[in-house]
Design brief:
elongated, mainly alpha, 102 residues, Methane Monooxygenase Hydroxylase, Chain G, domain 1
Length: 102
Amino acid sequence: MSETETKSLPAGAIVQGEGRKDILRRLRRVEGQLRGVMRMIEEGEGCMPVAQQLSAARKALDAVFFRMTVCYLEQELGEAGGLDDETADKLRTVGTLLGKYG
């Protein structure tokens, strides 16, 4: 993302390169899961398999939310000058825990 593009984004927008790419990659995966669920319903699949796939998509979307939250915190703390390596490691650990158990 160029400097001109980042200047036009609202305050708090996710602009970090790798974090942003990861979030978009995860969202595309969820999008594919939801297309699969729609296809299952269109083809008359049973409720249990559809429910399982919806549950998986919901969990994946929750993981995206947690990743976005950690990315935002890393970005904002980094801009404020308060993100050293130890703090960054702790944030990643929190993100991992939330992704697994949140």
